[in-house]
Amino acid sequence: MSKYIDMIGHNDVPHLNPPIISVEEREDLFKDMLPHERVARQTGRPSLGAGAIYPVAEEQLLIDPFPIPDWYEQAYALDPGWNYTAAMLLVRNPDTDQYYATAEFYGQQDKPIEHVQGIKAMLPWPKLVGCIDPAGDNVSSQRDGTKLKQEYEDLGLELQKANNAVHAGLRRVLVLMQGGQLKIFRTLVYTLKELRLYRRDVKGKIVKQNDHLMDCMRYGLNTDQAFQPRPIHKSRSRARGEW
After folding, report:
1. For position 32, what pLDDT does the model report?
2. Residue 133: helix, strand or coil by DSSP?
């Protein structure tokens, strides 16, 4: 016996849409809802326990990719693990303090050397220093007992410990999202998947599942000196705005 599951929301129900009801009547159905509650009812995506950690509408966050100017500062964060290892590239416009999540890496049960190859392919320049989950300095590899941070450094990454303050970090990311100061390239499919399910349980505790890229986002946006300017070679002189 086979089974098929689909999600149906208000958008799929004819009697809740024009011309059967007016646009004004439709909007009145959602006027008292938070953004994530509105999305749940419009699209049929399930409600998330005590609520989404980032209750911000996707249309407010997602943008099409664009070429990153050389003078933007960049950062990346790494969350290593046994089952999944994730990394996220973030950029910042230093003039406007606008942030963008521009690239992601998501690896499963591969060897660290394979993760490093994928991460390096994502970096805008080889010596960009990443910030890593500070637990990586204490957790040892199942393979030979080497600490994860040291192992990734030995394989060619330059890393610093991330700021892992959870509640303050979540608050900062949310404020950036709500203020329109953080945008996410819509090509980041794993990030979007995690964002949709990043939630608290009915007791208000963070559900620690499928959140590796969410952790990377928090590390990168909350670690001092994470964002770095592109190195300028001596043979290349330029002023901002000269391209």
Report:
1. 63
2. coil
